[in-house]
Amino acid sequence: AHFLGSSLSGMQVSTYREGNRQIGMLLRGPDEERAQLDLLASLAIPTPGGTAVPLSQVARLEYVFEDGIIWHRNLLTTVTVRADIADGLLPPEVTGQILPALDGIRAALPDGYLLEVGGTVEDSARGQNSIKAGMPLFLVVVVTLLMLQLRSFSRAAMVLVTAPLGIIGATLFLLIFRVPFGFVALLGTIALAGMIMRNSVILVDQIQQDIDAGHDRWHAIIDATVRRFRPIVLTALAAVLAMIPLSRSAFYGSMAISIMGGLIVGTVLTLVFLPALYAAWFRVRPDEAAS
């Protein structure tokens, strides 16, 4: 039975590595022997004595029906149609083109029949719904921590405003690398918002420290930005370099790409946008330094 199974279905004997993929190597009989049932009786079976005998001498071949399998999904009898997409296409694009064509089929189904879309699209929607459910708690915790650190509602709100800056870079890099914005990329974008706000907290806190030390507000903004430029850039660069190996992953690649793009663009925008926002928010003018 073991030899028959390996001859027809195949037996994995080794693994071939190609890049970050592992491809199993199967040992099985030729295609012409497996495709013609009349050749099955003459299949040579090895014996302990070193000789080979036809399968018909050691077994009786009969044609019988196999027990059927009834697949269920959510306790309902289901027929599943699976397909893969061609190279160069994105799953959301393909799904968006297929769904309008399915509306007519869904409308013509008898009562009691359902037509649903599953797979990665369904998993992504389920994950996004779970994130949306926890988003209010996430915002409350973030605002509370910012208030404890900065001790000012205005400065905390200013840091929150910089959180979406990373979305620009994340979207740009996902478009360049033609990676869909799925659930994993959404997780990367949420993590990216925390990284951008961390840099903003460092810069805003440094500005306030300089003001408390007696510096005028205009020079405090400029000096704090110059002094914190190198630590912020090096921290962001270290995070980007750490994401390069992960960007080749089939599962976490979209998350790494969104974080890399968002950090690169978001860090630059933070160093330019946040000082200008601080000056505009608190109405800081250059003439304060002269006075």
UniProtKB/TrEMBL annotation:
Keyword Transmembrane: yes
Top-level taxon of the source organism: Bacteria
SUPFAM superfamilies: Multidrug efflux transporter AcrB TolC docking domain, DN and DC subdomains, Multidrug efflux transporter AcrB transmembrane domain
Keyword Transmembrane applies: yes
InterPro entries registered for this protein in UniProt: AcrB_DN_DC_subdom, Acrflvin-R
PANTHER family for this protein: CATION EFFLUX SYSTEM PROTEIN, PTHR32063
Protein name, UniProt field: Efflux RND transporter permease subunit
Species the sequence originates in: Stenotrophomonas nitritireducens
Lineage per the UniProt record: Bacteria, Pseudomonadati, Pseudomonadota, Gammaproteobacteria, Lysobacterales
